[in-house]
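Input.
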Amino acid sequence: MKILAIACSPSRGRNSDTMLDHFILGMKEVSGIEVEKIYLQDIRINDYTYENRQAPEDTEPEFKKLTDRMKNEFSGLVIATPTYNFSVPAHLKNFVDRIRFFALDFTKKNELGQPMGTLGHLKTYFLVSGGTPNWAEHILFFAFPSFWLRGVFLYFNAKVMGAFYSGDTKTFKNNKILNKCFKRGKKYAQKVARKKSHGILERIFWRPPQVR
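Output.
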């Protein structure tokens, strides 16, 4: 099984990127799991517009290749991102907006009249770094990327396996946190390999009903 790991920080080798590297080391401990890491900034993705809402443009061959592979090749998706002003870097937000053309089926509607999500084949996990202490993030969880990313990919009907936040501004040097990333990566990959569903917290996390 193949898992796509996307590093979304423009600062390579720092917090969320290092979290992802250790998460990947954990995933590679599991037999039958193949992991491919990419840097989102290496892929040209034009800003979302009305004109490109339905498909990649001719000037985006790598983006088209990536979306084709996400539709047909990968069983898992791990996104690692820093927190910028309680949100994600602009290129990650743009990526999420742009993949709507295949993440949603606009020919089908759910009970709320919304388009149906199509990413049921993807098991997702989110790694988030930030400058807010963990205790504060636990209280204000709804204002941080890990909450928003869960909601978006549940809307796309993906299986959300979990998220991990670090508020240490020097996470890349914190072996305790990085070891947790390693263990969580291994556990996540085991669930992907065994075709396990998402956890109890994700089951009760609201998502639009998918059957009308």
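Residues 2-204 form a domain with the Rossmann fold fold (CATH 3.40.50.360).
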